[in-house]
Write a structure and sequence with these properties.
By secondary structure, this protein is an alpha+beta fold. It contains 15 helices and 18 strands. The protein has 3 domains: 25 residues; 202 residues, no CATH class; 230 residues, no CATH class. It has a 10-stranded antiparallel sheet with strand order 3-2-1-13-12-11-9-8-7-6.
């Protein structure tokens, strides 16, 4: 027995999370209570940290009905895009004009932090609420914490607890939390809020936080799901994806940026070339002015966190466009460049010599040739010198407006005639390119769009450019020459699920291609064209954190309540941790909970 005690002491000392001496021992319930207090205190600090930021929050929801062979088939969708605020209370300012009167003026004054209000429909703020467990009552007084296990989330080792509210309050959290073992940050929580107001409902959700370059763990992904939600008296399954990004730009300080510019010492060479383009001729002046307007337009969208800065993914798009230019012997000045629109709706457009493709469109396209077809259509506008009206943005006062007005102020809509001309020219560009014999999948993609246009109108509705299906369907020749759509053929993949290709850095807004290994489709129901799936990011530590300080007292080895197969609801009375009172049967050995090592 003495040897066992010595071994346990040595193990705890090797862990280093909690100090131990035989002189001032603490009971296991006291250590457990201090651990929970560290977790709740860190969560309270994190909520205060969130208040410094106003990230972009995008929610896309689909309703499904089940098909025996094809699995979940979409029947409806909803889309919300706003800028979140975590200050004194949650707010969500919409970028979409027709949602503003409902979301920000009427509903939010009557309903607090709910997901679905049966009289009026979705409340976008309810999805933003899923970034926070409980704003004011997350502590041992209001919740019961039950230790379950240790688990790796990506490469981050975590302690896992079930959390049960001990009081009846509107919107309290019931579910599970994952706590990283160095500084006790909650990096994932999974469950639902309970006790909704009359006439409203909460969805089940899985909320993730990512450690950004600043070292903080910030909300980034939320997957929500609910079964048997009534739609036109028919039960549907709802799935939603909420993404948050633009943290760095939301905290930008112009005074600091100005000071930084003047503290950086730079010596220009005598041969330094001015940034200003040679405008000695009228045509050169015209091109320089249009390019400046084009740059101003892109920069404004970048400042609003709607377009990604130059990133590895934009370089990939540049390569595909260059393939089209070189094989067609084109000489274009100034050079054509590509950028990524960070939103989910499927759209692309060109302003001047800049081609913009949305994250959702890149996600859903089945292959590189299909991407080339989209880029060829926009390149055709450049080749045909279609006027983008970017000259107007040479006047900077036209770009001084709130970020949430960007979708209204910066629309780039083409005429029907311009789209037809671009379609014809794009076929010429593709015919001379290495992609000319690989366009069958693009035709299938267009056919899949046609199938889903009535049930997924919000995904197919462009917010800045011209929709694929709004006026004249694009690339009609490619579509007509492609094979018939075969939903039950697992070898024919017309479109991918959202989130298949693009990885978005929530801090810097940089985008890259997802390098994860693709999983083979084994059944028709696994094809999932344009569908939503759960998030499962591989979390890593991107910043070296200073481990949390050890408790001021020197506690005994950490002993936490053990997990078993008993439902949480049945354990409410037997495992209350208020005051740290745990029964002897609820304790586990130190080798099962080693202080986070």
């Amino acid at each position: 027995m003495k040897c066992r005690r010595i071994a346990l002491i040595l193990l705890v000392l090797s862990v280093g999370t909690f100090a131990f001496t035989a002189d001032t021992p603490s009971t296991a319930p006291e250590v457990f209570a201090k651990t929970i207090d560290k977790i709740t205190a860190r969560e309270a600090d994190n909520v205060k940290t969130f208040a410094k930021y106003s990230p972009i929050v995008e929610t896309y929801v689909q309703g499904f009905k089940k098909d025996k062979e094809l699995g979940r088939m979409p029947v409806e969708d909803s889309y919300f895009l706003g800028r979140a605020s975590f200050k004194t209370r949650l707010q969500d300012d919409s970028f979409i004009s027709d949602q503003r009167p409902v979301v920000t003026r009427n509903i939010l004054r009557q309903i607090k932090e709910i997901t679905f209000e049966r009289r009026t429909g979705w409340v976008p703020l309810g999805f933003t609420q899923m970034t926070i467990i409980d704003r004011g009552h997350f502590d041992r007084l209001h919740y019961k914490f039950v230790y379950r296990q240790k688990e790796f989330v990506g490469s981050v080792r975590c302690l896992v607890f079930d959390v049960v509210p001990t009081a009846k309050g509107h919107g309290m959290f019931l579910g599970r939390i994952w706590v990283e073992d160095q500084n006790f940050n909650i990096i994932r929580f999974n469950g639902s809020y309970v006790h909704p107001e009359e006439g409203s409902a909460f969805l089940h959700f899985d909320s993730w936080r990512t450690q950004v370059s600043s070292g903080q763990w910030l909300p980034t992904f939320i997957y929500s799901e609910e079964y048997d939600v009534m739609n036109d008296k028919q039960p549907v399954t709802l799935r939603g994806q909420t993404r948050l990004w633009g943290y760095a730009t939301s905290q930008s300080d112009t005074a600091q940026e100005f000071a930084k510019a003047f503290t950086t010492i730079q010596v220009d060479s005598k041969d330094a070339v001015s940034d200003q383009v040679d405008s000695s001729s009228p045509l050169a002046s015209q091109k320089a002015w249009e390019r400046e307007g084009e740059n101003n337009y892109i920069l404004r969208l970048e400042q609003a966190s709607l377009i990604a800065p130059e990133s590895p993914l934009s370089e990939i798009l540049d390569t595909v466009v260059n393939n089209l230019i070189v094989t067609n012997n084109l000489s274009i000045e100034p050079e054509v460049r590509c950028r990524v629109l960070l939103t989910a709706p499927l759209e692309s457009f060109a302003i001047g010599h800049t081609i913009v493709v949305s994250r959702g469109l890149i996600d859903a396209l089945p292959d590189e040739a299909s991407l080339a077809a989209v880029l060829a259509h926009e390149l055709a506008h450049v080749v045909l010198a279609h006027d983008s009206d970017n000259s107007q943005f040479g006047f900077n006062d036209r770009l001084i407006f709130p970020d949430t007005a960007a979708l209204d102020r910066l629309r780039m809509v083409r005429t029907d005639d311009e789209e037809k001309q671009a379609d014809e020219e794009s076929m010429t560009l593709l015919e001379n390119s290495p992609y000319k014999d690989k366009l069958a999948n693009m035709g299938l993609f267009l056919k899949q769009l046609e199938v889903n246009k009535k049930v997924l109108p919000n995904l197919l509705k462009s917010r800045l450019g011209t929709s694929f299906l709004e006026i004249t369907p694009r690339l009609a020749t490619v579509k007509s020459s492609s094979p018939e759509l075969a939903p039950k053929d697992i070898h024919q993949v017309a479109a991918l699920p959202l989130g298949s290709r693009v990885v978005l850095d929530p801090w810097s807004d940089h985008v890259d291609m997802n390098k994860a290994r693709s999983v083979p489709v084994m059944a028709a129901r696994e094809k999932l064209p344009f569908s939503l799936t759960p998030f499962y990011p591989y979390l890593t530590r991107n910043f070296v954190e200073t481990p949390a300080a050890a408790p001021t007292e020197t506690p005994a080895p950490v002993t936490l309540p053990k997990a078993d197969s008993q439902p949480v609801a049945q354990r409410a009375n037997s495992e209350s941790i208020d005051g740290g009172n745990l029964s002897k049967s609820d304790r586990v050995d130190i080798d099962k909970v080693d202080g986070g090592k």
